[in-house]
Specification:
CATH architecture of the largest domain: 3-Layer(aba) Sandwich
CATH class of the largest domain: Alpha Beta
Mean pLDDT: 87
Helix content: 25-40%
Shape: elongated
């Protein structure tokens, strides 16, 4: 690879890649087993640091032994198998006290309260159907364990251990008093990120190679809640959902956000033209929604909010525009119903060129999105980058197959569409015809749009990042990664606090 090529790739990595966070073990003084008085005080309801540590250590051991009922001192202790807003102990493959670790690469987000924060870890072997939609590396949860003292029976006080999902449960009532739960949101998150190191290079390899080992798709970053609005984060060119590590951590730390929204990430290979990737994303979003709520009754499915960065914003814009006839005549020489297509191909072509807006998308926050293209893509750097980008096999195979049955179907400007020369970088050039058409499409009235952009962005100009009719526009002092800026994060929180647009 030439120095120039290597430099182009380095730019891509600097622009959008995000190294995973990791955990460091906290050095704790070696000591014997927790003093019986500390553990017994925890069983009695105490939540001071010593009692919480003793309870956390005991849960680790008891869970590893199968979470069986035990008699300890004057207590008979059992795990509760069904907890509203929580988990049965058998759901997790292992549990650890969160205070054993410190996150590296993320600001710790913790809250004081009763109980002991834990990492609940479950290997994702797709033991349940929904686990198709969870991160393949693992399912980590921010769990808070609480010991609930009960009645005296046969000289022993009954104690129930409850495992609460801290993103679903803020407080619990104990002995008639509502108590706020302690929390550590960052350590379980950093623990999951530490297992995604191979994903860190996927943003680059998905551009250079046709096969990356990771398929496009959504990942629910928390347990599905039928009452919380989906907040979907869509990454940009040369990137992966790891780019959202910091923002996800920040949003989970805000009670106003986490009680109203559930965070989903979307991963896609960034070598294909954005309008092709957009079609795949729309289909997968429809599939996910149908799986989660087949009857269409969940409050969560009535509204969706999306935050999108760079090229991901182009995919996202496709959710909230109505193209009608805008694309067909400029691209094809004959009417849609005159093409020879299988039923499956016809449906795919219809969704590719005549799709319908997803009216459940209530708001979109566009961060440094090249609506007007990128002059970088049209420059000598971009032209060199185009040579390095692998063609999208799905995109090329699809149109090559159709063209063989329908010779002469392309307008002259699109004759190279199935020749393996069209890719994501080429599509971002300002004069690329499809993107020119796409830019003219207005966001539907049912969706509010917001813009965040960087004043020092070398890849997307200020005018290119604008979208007509935006409800708000914020320029921050940053480069292309505008959403990382503290003012951008505050703006995102402000927007998320707004009432529904429709």
């Amino acid at each position: 690879m030439s120095r120039l090529a290597a430099w182009v790739l380095a730019i891509g990595l600097v622009v959008a890649a995000c190294a995973p966070a990791r955990l460091e073990r906290v050095r704790e003084r070696r000591s014997p087993e927790p003093a019986p008085s500390d553990l017994e005080r925890a069983f009695g309801g105490a939540s001071d640091p010593a009692a919480a540590k003793a309870l956390g250590n005991w849960i680790e051991q008891a869970h590893g032994a199968g979470a069986k009922d035990q008699e300890i001192g004057g207590y008979r202790v059992r795990f509760r198998n069904k907890v509203d807003g929580g988990y049965a102990p058998g759901y997790f493959d292992r549990m650890e006290r969160a205070s054993r670790y410190e996150p590296v690469g993320l600001e710790p987000q913790r809250e004081a309260g009763i109980g002991v924060p834990l990492i609940g870890h479950r290997d994702n072997h797709r033991r349940e159907a929904i686990e198709k939609w969870y991160p393949p590396e693992a399912i980590n949860r921010a769990v808070t364990a609480v010991a609930i003292p009960g009645a005296m029976r046969q000289g022993k006080r009954e104690v129930e251990i409850r495992l609460y999902d801290r993103l679903q449960t803020e407080s619990v009532v104990i002995a008639g008093k509502r108590e706020h739960l302690a929390a550590d949101f960052t350590v379980p998150w950093a623990g999951l990120l530490a297992e995604t190191r191979s994903l860190a290079t996927t943003g680059l390899t998905s551009v250079l190679r046709q096969q990356t080992g990771r398929e496009a798709g959504f990942s629910l970053m928390e347990a599905y809640d039928p009452d919380k609005t989906p907040l979907i984060l869509v990454h940009g060119l040369f990137s992966t959902p790891l780019a959202w590590a910091e923002l996800t951590n920040e949003l989970w730390s805000d009670p106003a956000v986490r009680t109203r929204y559930q965070i989903w990430h979307y991963l896609y290979p960034t070598n294909a033209p954005p309008l092709y990737s957009a079609r795949v994303m729309r289909r997968q979003l429809d599939e996910l929604r149908a799986f989660l709520d087949p009857d269409g009754r969940d409050p969560a499915m009535q509204r969706t909010v999306v935050i999108a960065h760079s090229m991901g914003g182009l995919l996202t814009k496709s959710l909230v525009v109505d193209p009608r006839e805008a694309f067909w005549d400029p691209i094809f020489t004959r009417p849609f119903d005159k093409l020879e297509l299988t039923a499956e191909e016809r449906e795919a072509m219809k969704e590719a060129f005549y799709w319908k807006p997803r009216t459940h998308v209530d708001r979109v926050i566009f961060c440094s999105v090249p609506f007007g293209g990128s002059t970088w893509a049209a420059s000598w750097v971009g032209r060199t980058g185009r040579l390095l980008v692998a063609p999208s096999r799905g995109f090329n195979d699809f149109f090559d197959r159709i063209e063989k049955k329908n010779p002469g179907m392309w307008q002259p400007v699109y004759e190279n569409l199935a020749a393996g020369t069209v890719n994501s970088v080429m599509s971002l050039a300002p004069k690329q015809r499809s993107m020119e058409i796409f830019r003219t499409l207005s966001v539907v009235p049912t969706t509010a749009s917001h813009v965040i952009k960087g004043s020092r962005d070398l890849f997307v100009s200020s005018s290119s990042a604008d979208i007509p009719g935006a409800e708000s526009v914020l320029t921050v002092s940053s480069g292309h990664g505008s959403f990382h800026h503290p003012k951008a994060m505050e703006e995102i929180k402000r927007i998320l606090a707004l009432p529904p647009h429709h």
